[in-house]
Design goal:
alpha/beta; Immunoglobulin-like; 4-stranded mixed β-sheet; 21% helix; binds copper (II) ion
């Protein structure tokens, strides 16, 4: 009787362990990348990152700018000098964006599938 109790406890411990591992995999691959806003341009104008990466824009001009997705998937508040805005891209694709105050300022974030995890579509 004591035997069967302790193997039930061992089984419960194993299950707890397995779900902990799954959580870690879900958070893997949090790379970061940076885009500078300088002299009315986004630099680099086109940036490629892997899925799960966080991109941070920094306004290095001394006039306000914004970062606004062309398809309304993200939008910053008005960024004054030295303000930053961050967005995490989880789905592969090409994300065009612009400055809503100066719409001729445009940029693209290209998100590629993270390699090596066998994730399909
Ligand atoms: Cu602007």
């Amino acid at each position: 009787m004591a035997m069967s109790l302790s193997s039930a406890a061992a089984a419960a411990a194993l299950i707890g362990c397995a779900s902990g591992i799954a959580l870690e995999v879900a958070f893997a691959g949090g790379d970061t990348a940076a885009v500078a806003i300088d002299n009315f341009t986004f630099a680099p104008q086109r940036l490629t990152v892997t899925a799960g990466s966080t991109v941070t824009w920094s306004n290095r001009d001394d006039i306000p700018h914004t970062v606004a997705s062309a398809t309304k998937q993200f939008k910053s508040k008005t960024l004054d000098a030295d303000d930053t805005f961050s967005f995490t891209f989880t789905t592969p694709g090409a994300y065009e964006y612009f400055c809503s105050l100066h719409p001729h300022m445009t940029g693209t974030i290209v998100v590629e599938a993270a390699t090596g995890n066998g994730a399909a579509p």
